[in-house]
Amino acid sequence: MDGEVVQGTLAAAGTVSLWDLFLHAGFIVKLVMIGLLVASVWTWAIIIDKSMRYAAFRRQLNKFESNFWSGQSLEDLYHSLSERKTSGMGALFVAAMREWKKSFEKGARSPIGLQARIEKAMDVTLAREMDDLESRLGFLATIGSAAPFIGLFGTVIGIMTSFQAIAGSQQTSLAVVAPGIAEALLATAIGLVAAIPAVIAYNKLTADAGKLGMRLEAFADEFSSILSRQIDEKLAR
User: Fold this and answer.
1) Are 165 and 2 in contact (CB under 8 A)?
2) Are 46 and 136 in contact (CB under 8 A)?
3) Would you say 114 and 108 are in contact if contact means Cβ atoms under 8 Å apart?
4) What highest taxon heads this organism's lineage (predicted)?
5) According to the 3-state scheme, what is the secondary structure of 26-89?
6) Model confidence pTM above 0.85
7) Residue 177 phi/psi, 5° resolution?
8) 7-11, 13-17, 80-84, 138-142 — which is least confidently predicted?
9) Which of 17, 36, 203, 211 has CA 20 to 30 A from 179's CA?
10) H or E segment and range at residue 116
């Protein structure tokens, strides 16, 4: 069905529903709309997944801090955590304690070298944890910045097709022009629907990841100081 017939059908029927506008849009415009709708669904899947993961991560941090400062010995805590997969502060703690134990088993004598190895082990683990926290956030940033332009591209193509149909029909009444313009503008609307939540979620989730990262860094610094004092005491004997 060409653009002239489509616009005439919509004008005659007075149809303005979104579904009919989508069905009567051109192939390229439909492709743009479908792509944006898929991106929007995936965006919401990431938002929901990340929100749940961050909430669980905070609970995990709170639980670990409670156990760490409860007076339980570091050895007991290490044995309980090393037997299962850990993340967050638990992963930092296990990495540091594992390096501590390996170094003393091999007869470490240099407190500076041991401290450096422990800090390096925690830095590597911290980088891995931050990569996991920030994974897929780049997709939200990409959708937030690109979706409006992709929708605008669909709108431009739709308007060009609509004007060609109008020129062919030699009719310029509003009833003939409006359906084609509405079809084209629907692509921009869908682009904004995909972009706005992505931008808001990206800013919020990035801030949340930064706060969680700061908690991990603060624990790494504090635990490094604790181990440094114990290293001095142990090597001084």
Assistant:
1) yes
2) yes
3) yes
4) Bacteria
5) CHHHHHHHHHHHHHHHHHHHHHHHHHHHHHHHHHHHHHHHHHHCCCCCHHHHHHHHHCCCCCCH
6) no
7) -75, -40
8) 7-11
9) 36
10) helix 111-134
Is 190 within 8 Å of 150 (Cβ atoms)?
Answer: no
pLDDT tens-digit series, residues 74-118: 888 888 888 788 889 999 999 998 888 887 666 666 667 778 888
Fill in the amino acid letter for 115: Q
Q: 36 with 150: CB under 8 angstroms?
A: yes
Residue carrying the six token digits 């409860």:
70
Question: At 50, which amino acid appears?
Answer: K
Query: Which residues of the chain form beta strands (DSSP E)?
Result: none
Q: Which residues contact 169 (CB under 8 A, 6 or more apart)?
A: 4, 7, 8, 176
